Amino acid sequence: MNTLSNSNSALLKEMGISEWVAKDSAQAPQIEEPTPVSSQAKPRGIWWFFGIKPKGDAEILFQNLIRVLGLDSKEWLWCEPANKAKLARPDEALPVISIAFGGQAVQAMTGERDPLEELRDTILELNREGLEEIPLVPSFTLEHFIARPQDKRLLWQDLLLAKSVLHSL
What are phi and psi of 66, to 5 degrees? Predict the structure, then answer.
């Protein structure tokens, strides 16, 4: 069984997810710390996060998520769905990916009415004039992941999906 690369191992560790190693593996993988993004590096894309603003442990999880993704303050935006009218495509010609945390946020941002469990693992689009082509990845609330740590793997899957979509734009 192949082990994950060092960078993936570090990302899993940052997310609080244990990496499994086969018993017959001769050596555990070396974990290296993620390289912080310098403030002078050109952003690779913009991340929009939608949902109820996290507090407490959920806020710590979100801060860890931002750190694991290597985003600086210019590369991401948190927006509550009630404020979606204020959204505008960034002036820069950078691709945008969005993640909605929770069923209500997904419904508000896309107009979809299916349950979140059915919408996960799909790529939706924002339902707002001028922003229709911005992909949205549905996910559970951060509070859900705090209450159910065994589901953090689902958050990891959602982040990987969003990251792959961003790289394909």
Answer: -60, -45
